[in-house]
Design a protein that fits this description.
single chain, 245 residues, mainly beta, 15-stranded mixed β-sheet, 2 helices, 15 strands, 55% strand, DUF3108 domain-containing protein, signal, DUF3108
Length: 245
């Protein structure tokens, strides 16, 4: 089993307007309990903060004690942006993907040279280096997770954006499926359910079927995410949120 791609899969749109009146909260920290087939397997976090002109998003996943005995998971993904140069979270500049899942370790880095239309990919484990042509509005998976929260999401519509997922530049569709009432750590809330059509690496490596539940208000808090994995499904449930100022 791979514990990976729900939070990462909350990927979507860098080219559509923001929700009227919505104000992105920075700093913010979201903490999720990860479960597989209803059994707790670990914890994931998403945290965004600003320092000067740079906005940083740090995403982590860690297996709990019982799973770590035979399948340790320890993942850390750091993305950085020029926060004044593009819609929230900003213009993608740097991405570092470091994971340990069982005996498998990965360490990949992307430097975005947006003005040149190039992303420089490096695999620090294999030594592979590739220059990838990209459109100017390309963003990484984890940055798009934040941007989607401030879109005008209407049931029955779809949005698209350019994402660089490892070495693959893709135009990704996100579908707005339905509204649904959900019991959460925030109480019983109305949510909007979206489906990003993405096959991604990172916190939950999924098989392409991903659903995200966002609160149906201007906060658009991701309270649940679920993806199919090789056997069964993995669910991320929000258990703590530290809001921005």
């Amino acid at each position: 089993m791979r514990v990976h791609a729900v939070l990462a899969a909350a990927v979507v749109v860098l080219c559509v307007g923001s929700v009227a009146g919505a104000a992105p909260k920075v700093p913010e920290k979201l903490v999720y309990e990860l479960s597989w087939a209803g059994v707790p397997v670990g914890t994931a976090t998403q945290e965004v903060a600003d320092e000067g002109d740079v906005r940083t998003i740090v995403s982590t996943a860690r297996s709990n004690d019982w799973l770590s005995v035979f399948f340790p998971v320890e993942d850390r993904i750091v993305s950085s942006y020029d926060r004044h140069r593009a819609p929230f979270p900003g213009l993608a500049r740097h991405y570092r993907f470091q994971t340990r899942e069982g005996n498998r370790r990965r360490d990949r880095e992307i430097v975005f040279e947006q003005e040149r239309g190039v992303a420089r990919f490096t695999d620090h484990k294999t030594g592979e280096k590739v220059n990838i042509p990209i459109p100017l509005d390309t963003i990484d998976v984890y940055g798009s997770f934040y941007y989607v929260r401030y879109l005008p999401l209407e049931v029955g519509t779809s949005h698209h954006l350019n994402i660089l997922d490892s070495k693959r530049q893709r135009l990704i569709e996100v579908r707005v499926l339905r509204k649904e009432k959900l019991k959460t750590v925030l109480g019983e809330v109305e949510t909007i359910v979206i489906q990003p059509l993405v096959y991604s690496e990172g916190v939950f490596e999924g098989k392409g079927t991903v659903h995200i539940w966002l609160t149906d208000d201007e906060r658009r808090i991701p309270v649940r995410a679920r993806t199919r994995v090789t056997v069964g499904s993995v669910t991320a449930t929000l258990v703590e949120r530290t809001p921005g100022k």
